[in-house]
Amino acid sequence: MCINIQNVYAVAPAPSPLGSLNGRHLLQVSDLSPLELDALLRLTRFLKERAGHEQSGLLRGRTVALLFEKPSLRTRVSFEVALTQLGAKALFAQGAEFAIGSRETPEDAARVLSRYVDAVVIRTHDHSGLERFAGAAGVPVINALSAESHPCQALADVFTLRERFGEVAGLHIAYLGDGRNNVAASLAQAAVMLGATIHFGSPPTHRPSEGFLAQLGRLGKSAGGRARAFSNPVRAVRGADAVYTDVWTSMGEERYRERNDAMLRPYGVTEELMSYAAPHAAFMHCLPAHRGEEVSAAVIDGPNSVVFDQAENRMHSQKALLVALLTESKGFPI
Ligand code: CP
Q1: 251 lines ligand 1 (CB under 6 A)
Q2: What is the pLDDT of residues 206-250, one digit of tens each?
Q3: 44, 324 Cβ separation under 8 angstroms
Q4: Which among 22, 28, 175, 293 is most buried, taking Cβ atoms within 10 Å?
Q5: Where are the domains of the chain?
Q6: How many whole angstroms from 71 Cα to the centroid of ligand 1?
Q7: Does the global pTM surpass 0.85?
Q8: Is the CB of 72 within 6 Å of ligand 1?
Q9: Using a 6 Å cutoff on CB, does residue 145 contact ligand 1?
């Protein structure tokens, strides 16, 4: 079967919330409304269930630039494969070829690239440079990880939770470790927007700011999502449906590695800590992982680990995102 735009937009009710995404940027999860997030997850499911079908008509003839200042395995490859399967071409540049603001202003780079390509996917440390780039771009800009957020990871994470539990609303997710990092921030935004409760388990030095917790309260209000921070890891994890962690030191923060290792050691996800979660609790990690540090080998390689589902779902959810940002749903009745 050939998947075309008409049957893609048939997965969302009229008027499709996906239609409003055409031409937009995704710099953080909160750029989406809860309805748009839900529609993207439904489109992800539609495309994943039809992964063996011909999808190359969806973005045929489009070109997308992937500009990465920092290393990547999953994000780069999943975007390249997604674009190839959708019929588009990916152009990859890294290192000296692209660093926001180094050879020219972010605005000039954005204006130039907008004349060449249909979308730009950027991995950078500099979130404010990314915002400046997006502000001047005439094509959609996707954040493929910045110091502040990792929305593409969060789309795959909440999709994985939906696959495993049927719904994200009502789930209790525990995030252990550095509660201020980009993966934690984006996961928390997506979780509360879909009506889940997220508990951070972090020492005071790595706890999300009060301002961010208040933002999560506002984002979760309509769906009933909530966020709380605990310094006791057991209190954060008790009864959780999913336990999530990430490396203790993010890319670009290597100078803090020794301090982070010492501060975050009590928040490492071990079998003992998992024993306080619900018996069905999923273990989640965005990868790459460091066994024996933020997670024990027994947990990440154990039967409740969904880390490779998360990794696979990066590709399916990014396909949905690309289709939604780059195609018009107007004119399709459902
Ligand atoms: N999770 C993630 O973003 O992986 P990469 O850094 O390998 O892209």
Answers
A1: no
A2: 999 999 999 999 999 999 999 999 999 999 999 999 999 999 998
A3: no
A4: 175
A5: 5-150+314-326, 153-310
A6: 8
A7: yes
A8: yes
A9: yes
